[in-house]
Design brief:
Blueprint (H helix, E strand, L loop, with lengths): L2 H28 L1 H8 L1 H10 L4 E4 L5 H17 L1 H12 L5 H37 L8 E4 H30 L5 H6 L1 H15 L5 H35 L8
Helix pairs in contact: 1-4, 1-5, 3-6, 4-7, 6-7, 7-10, 9-10
């Protein structure tokens, strides 16, 4: 294809992806109320425990309520339309890939997408405990008026950060397949990986919420060792192929 044909193809793919995103945002905008009710449940729990109305979600400007709905619509719209825009990206780059690259790319996406959504789901499950725990540090007589924008940003960032952390082991396997890191090199870093996972879990969850911290750290550590095990398996298969092809001497 010529450069002009590639640009036309890209424009078509982007248009389909944009249409899917808009449709997803419209659907998400219609279901924004249940989402807002869900993510603000910890605030109502706090208000019930205090027995007053001094814990609430605060909309400080005329447009902040609409802005929050649009943020929710964009976020959920991206998730709902993900199959369409991921396919458009794939359909655009696939003709330029070799069969081996296609196989690796499909494997990466198939592993990364479920892990990312699993991490986002865990972030949503941890979020109420984090908010309730942080409320416990409010001094006697204090109030908890949560800015709608800052509250949503906190929920969204917590969800995304934990989702991305779940995908990092897939990148380790990708580096191994690319020949950048061997399985042994990945496994040798297990002490550093455990330390990083523990520190990340401690930062992503409140210091006093030990259960959530240990759960998140444990999942990240298991994913790391799974990535290391897969990398060792791929290295072993590669050595066997190279030995059969006469590229390396047979160790036996």
């Amino acid at each position: 294809m010529s450069l002009g044909a590639h640009l036309v193809e890209l424009r078509k793919r982007l248009m389909y992806a944009a249409i899917a995103l808009v449709v997803g945002m419209v659907v998400a905008f219609l279901i924004a109320d249940p989402v807002i009710h869900f993510i603000t449940e910890p605030i109502r729990i706090i208000s019930d425990r205090r027995g007053d109305d001094f814990s609430a979600l605060n909309f400080g400007t005329v447009t902040s309520a609409f802005d929050m709905r649009m943020r929710i619509a964009l976020t959920i719209g991206l998730f709902l339309s993900a199959p369409v825009w991921l396919w458009q990206i794939w359909a655009f780059i696939m003709p330029g890939l070799t069969r081996k690259e296609i196989r690796y790319t499909v494997g990466f996406v198939v592993a990364a997408v479920p892990l990312f959504f699993a991490g986002c789901y865990l972030g949503v499950q941890i979020m109420p405990h984090v908010i309730e725990l942080m409320w416990g540090f409010t001094p006697e007589g204090g109030t908890n008026f949560y800015s709608a924008q800052e509250y949503y940003d906190f929920v969204f960032k917590l969800m995304i950060v934990i989702g991305i952390s779940f995908v990092l082991p897939v990148f380790l396997v990708a580096l191994n397949l690319a020949g950048v890191m061997s399985g042994r090199a990945i496994l040798k870093g297990w002490r550093v990986a455990i330390l990083i996972a523990t520190i990340f879990a401690a930062l992503a969850t409140p210091a006093a919420d030990v259960v959530s911290m240990l759960m998140l750290a444990g999942i990240l550590i298991v994913l790391f060792f799974a990535a290391a095990g897969l990398s060792l398996l791929f290295d072993r298969r590669k050595r066997k192929r190279d030995t059969a092809a006469g590229l390396v001497p047979d160790a036996t």
